[in-house]
UniProtKB/TrEMBL annotation:
InterPro entries: ICDH/IPMDH (IPR050501), IsoCit/isopropylmalate_DH_CS (IPR019818), IsoPropMal-DH-like_dom (IPR024084), TTC_DH (IPR011829). PROSITE patterns: IDH_IMDH. It catalyses: (R)-malate + NAD(+) = pyruvate + CO2 + NADH. It comes from Paractinoplanes pyxinae. This is D-malate dehydrogenase (decarboxylating). The keyword Manganese applies. Residues 4-352 form the Isopropylmalate dehydrogenase-like domain. Its EC number is 1.1.1.83. Keywords: Manganese, Metal-binding, NAD, Oxidoreductase. One of its GO terms (molecular function) is tartrate dehydrogenase activity. SMART domains: Iso_dh (SM01329).
């Protein structure tokens, strides 16, 4: 099988971790008889913005639409382009235009990685956050009136559609049904947000009828945030609206160690459009250019991409190689400084690619 992959390194450490991700992907593809054709694009970056005054070329949509997946680094370089411009001008366009309505973020405590939470061992924390990615609190409906006066008033509406809520819930229930624990947790706030959140709860209850094997519970978002930190081992699949999911999907990976290892996928489950795979972290201007960024988040994204493209065994093999190399610890493996080692991005990427070929 041949898959065409659009590669967008973006800014900062995106350009450093993406090559490591491609190397690991190529090693994995080679072992499993998969052909990956990579085309690299320079748009969705501060450089591109400096040269063209926009983040994307006018034909970006037809260009990217012809690919099976998008392998994305990170976008953002606040010295050159304000973050809301770089983000709305690129990633958010991709998510909405390609209807990537699921944002999937695995949170797993990996061997060799210290959790900031005391007493947790690898295996204790292993859950996924499923975030609604196209509607909800992140709508552009609203406005400002009486600007600059004492009556200044700002309004921004939450939008929940039945189709939009049901499709992300269905994806989350399907994930839960496939996992050993078959447990789904819904994030709500129906005690305070009295119109949209009770509707969300109602749709969860309705969907539950179609998945009798899945155990379902719900928490208000404030309590849920606390439980992520106090009892992360309680969770299996956590489904949330756009805003709640955004917060949980940063908190979850934070509980499992460094930001540098956390992956995410923006998925169009129907495969009508390409899905996009990107690490949770950004362009990290504070360490960019030094070759010390952790490439594991980007490489793990490669595993998620292989899974999405229909190669679960190759995906599992790559993930196992990541776990193996991390488990050697900073003494034996070239782990990057965020993992208390002295390795570089390229060295850690190479070690994982080697492990893929050997195992
Ligand atoms: P960031 O994730 O880039 O960095 C936060 C901290 O984590 C920094 O101290 C950084 O050095 C560290 N870090 C991040 N990734 C790492 C890695 N792979 N290895 C080792 N350490 C790592 O978040 P920040 O600083 O808030 O944002 C920087 C820029 O990135 C901004 O322009 C922001 O808008 C953008 N950004 C883009 C995202 C995306 O493309 N999806 C996501 C988050 C931020
Ligand atoms: Mg976020």
């Amino acid at each position: 099988t041949t898959h065409r992959i659009a590669v967008i390194p973006g800014d900062g450490i995106g350009r450093e971790v993406v090559p490591a991700g491609m190397e690991a992907l190529e090693a994995t593809a080679g072992r499993f008889g998969i052909t990956l054709e990579f085309d690299t694009f320079d748009f969705a970056s501060a450089d591109y913005w400096q040269r063209h005054g926009t983040m994307l070329p006018t034909d970006w949509e037809e260009t990217l639409r012809s690919y099976d997946a998008i392998f994305f680094g990170a976008v953002g370089w606040p010295e050159v382009v304000p973050d809301h411009v770089s983000l709305w001008g690129s990633l958010l366009q991709f998510r909405r235009t390609f209807d990537q309505y699921v944002n999937l973020r695995p949170c797993r405590l990996m061997p060799g990685v210290r959790s900031p939470l005391a007493g947790r061992e690898p295996g204790d924390i292993d859950f996924v956050v499923v975030r609604e990615n196209t509607e909800g609190e992140y709508s552009s409906i609203g406005g400002r009136i009486f600007e600059g006066t004492e009556r200044e008033t700002v309004l921004q509406e939450t939008v929940m559609t039945r189709v939009g809520v049901d499709r992300v819930l269905r994806f989350a229930f399907e994930q839960a049904a496939r996992r050993p624990k078959q447990h789904l947790t819904s994030a709500t706030k129906s005690n305070g947000i009295s119109i949209s959140m009770p509707y969300w709860d109602e749709r969860v209850a309705e969907m539950k009828g179609q998945f009798p094997a899945v155990r379902v519970d719900k928490f208000h978002i404030d309590a849920l945030a606390a439980q992520f930190v106090l009892h992360p081992e309680w969770f299996d699949v956590v489904v949330a609206s756009n805003l709640f999911g955004d917060i949980l999907s940063d908190l979850g990976p934070a509980c499992t160690g460094t930001l540098g290892i956390a992956p995410s996928a923006n998925i169009n489950p129907e495969r009508d459009h390409p899905s996009l795979f990107e690490p949770v972290h950004g362009s990290a201007p504070d360490i960019a250019g030094r070759g010390i960024a952790n490439p594991v988040g980007q490489i793990w994204c490669g595993s998620m991409m292989l899974e999405h493209l229909g190669h679960p065994e190759a995906a599992a093999h790559l993930l196992a190689a990541i776990e193996k190399v991390l488990s050697y610890g900073p003494g034996e493996a070239p782990l990057t400084p965020d993992l208390h080692g002295k390795g570089t991005t390229a060295e850690l990427g190479r070690a994982i690619a080697d492990q893929v070929r050997q195992a």
